[in-house]
What we know:
Elements: E1 9-13, H1 16-19, E2 32-33, E3 36-37, H2 38-41, H3 44-49, H4 51-65, H5 74-86, E4 90-94, H6 100-104, E5 109-111, E6 114-121, E7 127-129, E8 149-153, H7 163-172, E9 175-179, H8 191-197, E10 201-206, E11 218-221, H9 224-239
Parallel strand pairs: 1-4, 1-9, 4-5, 9-10, 10-11
Antiparallel strand pairs: 2-3, 6-7, 6-8
Helix pairs in contact: 5-9, 7-8
Amino acid sequence: MHDVYKPRVVVLTGAGVSAESGIKTFRDNNGLWENHRIEDVATPEGFAANPDLVYQFYNDRRAQLQAPDVTPNQAHKALAELESALGEQFLLVTQNVDDLHERAGSERVLHMHGKLLSARCCNTGKTTQWLDSFDAHTECRCCFPGAQVRPDIVWFGEVPMHMDEIILALAKADVFIAVGTSGQVYPAANFVAMAADSGARTIEINLEPSQQNSLFDEKIVGKAGKVLPEFVTHFIRDYC
Ligand code: OAD
């Protein structure tokens, strides 16, 4: 069957999708992210107040992500399988800054909150893949003389990436699926309402009801690594 006859699907993922790969979610520890207040490590103000702490925090997260035991789980793999079945009708929007979707085989992925394995030039805004640690003295690879680089992460108060493309995809979506996100951070928390306004069928897959739970047509409660592969198998059988 030609792709155009398949439903247009937009999937939004959050930290819950990577939890079973050993990466902690943001709000599971009294509001602390790996023992830090989000205000200290995920805001421009926190970066201005204590850049060394912020560089170190993301250096630690970058190293953790590349540890041998951190690998994609069944949820990441199921989404790669759904992409293979739907082709261009599929778009994955992730709030996650890890690369586990890509490692599972996903290609049609937009990282709206940036990427851990990337550094951003403070002068030009250009990004470069960066696997090692960096700090305030590290120079970018795009300017001469080199300028300062910062983590390529969208902090609170900054504008998320790829919003034009995401809004267009939501407006055309037949199905919107949110997986492993608490629905507390905007604009992602608003995507279910936007998709529903466009007539999409909306489905939430999460360990517990999210803050946007009442807006979804269907709710599946469980661990993404277990319930998402089952959902994808049925979806492909019925629609692809
Ligand atoms: P949260 O930590 O707020 O929410 C994670 C959600 O995943 C919770 O609702 C959990 O119940 C659920 N969850 C946990 N384990 C799960 C599992 N195995 N299967 C399914 N669900 C599970 O994370 P996000 O919603 O992703 O922003 O947070 C959004 C943004 O806030 C993040 O991108 C980050 C953060 O501050 C930035 O870093 C810019």
